[in-house]
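Q: My collaborator sent me two sequences in one message, no labels, and asked for predicted structures for both. Can we handle them in order? The first one she listed is below.
A: Yes, handling them in the order given. First sequence, followed by its structure tokens:
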Amino acid sequence: MGTATEDAGYAQELFRLTNELRVQAGLDPLVEDARLLSSARDYAHFVVLSQWWKTHPYVPEIHCGADCRDMYNRAVDAGYPPAYVGENVMWGSVGRTAEQAFNEMIQGFYEDPTDPRFSRVGIVCYVRDEPGPAEYACVQVLGAAP
């Protein structure tokens, strides 16, 4: 399946852009949550190594892993209390900026990070090292206050 390296800088830029969008909408910035980070980390690693988007390109499918768990199940398994949870999955070729990926996400089908129910977030990005072309996957898990 290959190897992947976490790209914390890319994730931090997505976090900044997300909170910038929220502030523009008159909402409080999201707070990073370790449990949502854990959920996002596990799924982003799986998505990039499996190239999940190539075999599961439709919106509902991308959020359900090979084990049939979705974003809610993964968040609860990571210790997040039962609450409303949303997820955005971004992927593509290495070389796209975080701003390009973010703008593409908010122009398509996505879980709206300006939804006032959300107050917490975990964003993790991985770059697949090999085999094949360098590609990335980022997972943003949004959570309502527990």
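Q: And the one she listed second?
A: Here it is, processed independently of the first:
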Amino acid sequence: MNLSQIPKPASVGGRGLEPGENPNIRMALLTAAVVVGLALVVLLGRLWYLQLLKGEHFRLLSENNRIRLVDLAPSRGLIFDAEGRLLADNRPAFTLAVIPEDVGDWAVLTRRLHNLVGLSPEEIAKARRAAQGAPPFKPVVLRNHLDRHQLALLETFRYELPGVKVLVRYQRAYLAPRMAAHVIGYLGEINKQELERSNRAVYRMGDWVGRYGLEKSREQVLHGRRGARQVEVDAMGREIKLIKEVPASRGADITLSINLDLQKAAAKALEGRAGAVAALDPRTGQVLCLYSSPTFDPNDFITGMSTKQWKALAEDPKHPLKDRSISGMYPPGSTYKIITAAAGLAEKAINLTTRFFCAGQMPFGNRYYRCWAYKKGGHGYTDIHKAIRESCDVFFYKTGLKLGVDRLAKWARAFGLGRPTGISLPHESPGLVPDSQWKKKRFKEPWQDGETLSLAIGQSFTLVTPLQMARMTAVVANGGMLVTPTLVKTVTPPGGEPVPAPEPVKTRVPIAPEHLDTIAKGLAAVVNEPHGTARRARLPGIIVGGKTGTAQVVGLKFEKSFGDEENVPWKYRSHALFVAYAPVENPTIAVGVVVEHGGHGGSDAAPVATAVMRAYFGIPEPEPKQPPKPKPAPPAQPKPKKKPARPGAGT
């Protein structure tokens, strides 16, 4: 077939169809045009929506991605002693942090930080978990207290550490750490549970809060107010421009009533021993000295302790973290005879002419109750003055029997025992004042008269703290006022004037002035008269009043089973106690001392109180006694000449 034989397509209207006029193709083109048109309409509508309706919203989002709010933590208020010496300061320290939204690959960053500064993956994971729920632009603290070498490494490789920041923060520094550790206390980093209970406008993750001592009890005063900086950052999160800043306001400064010189004197006197000293001004209640031994360095809690260090501190058998001055509870021993004497006089169980005979022991029931002077044959006929001066147990046994346990308890409470003193420190112990109802409730049995004998001389169930002892003594010193101990003299807000602390609460003890005068004369005799039990507490030019005490911690028979006193194990030895005030004619200081398992009040506790009072009055320590010079040897005598042997001698 040739080409001429191929049939031609049919024509329409007398002419043939063009290829573009095929109905199927036309329909496809029309459909495509409609789709493109609709897409343009949707796109234009979306642009209208984004630009006109939501333009302001997305402009703000863009601005927030460029502008960042940086939190400014406040520095804590400073703490000074009574003489204006700085005890707690703030020093700049460097903190490693990370901005989560600037981190591209956490695995890479974790590996680099581990290689550079030894930060473990577990530490980073823990920090991230703690920061869950926080805005991603807020820094997450990874490590505090960077050293200079770590700072140099981070600065060298900072372009390989996206999101990593080195923050400069103020760190607490204690300048007399072992002199006032228990009073000032220490800080710790806030935890998640505490943060949830706290005001987010005040506290943030990574903040440090008071954990102990005044740092804890005065947290609201010392903490300060937060600030903020509005800054422009680049794509790497680096600050390039400061837009606005509201500076942080540091906490208020606190001036204490304690005197660093007295703290040092107490520390030196108690060195190597467990015990505590509390001293206050009996006129005002201001605490002059509050020292507990052994002590610790609160700076270790700021810079961080190893597990080994913490274990050694926490498991130390002498418990250095315990503030014995307000938390240690001890039998008061013969210092309690102040209470027995006051109760006896006030309740008219005894008077100035009452005399009891002390033969060194007193029969009661089927046993004998000994006086400490048993080996000397006792004190003979004894009145109240002699009984206080020489600490006659028999006199106070008999006075206690006349009074009974409940009247003794009444006067012990009147002198501030058996309840917290109200000092502004956490963890204060109330002590214990037993009475008949207490024993019935505690042991389900009645009080026995034989227990009253022990109670009257400060044994039995009674427990006191050193601060309570000083406060009890202050009642005698100030003429019958029970003062509330205070530690803070002034609070100074930033840029403001010092504001004096409120006047302490004072309560009148209902005892006649002549009875207090009788007790005061007896206490002065303890130190200054012959046969007084605290002659080692004398001060040149100052008349001191005091009372010794020795409190047994085990039965006398068990203690004697070890033979000589030096053979008794430390934990079974008696506590040594002493209370004092001075000058007797116008007292300005009252002191309570306990030396745990220290031996005797007069020989072991009284010198501690004396050292503190010497520091208070500015009396120098006496020169140590020089050993006597050895006597010169007598001149050598000439040796006698030997006689010549006789002929034949020795042969």
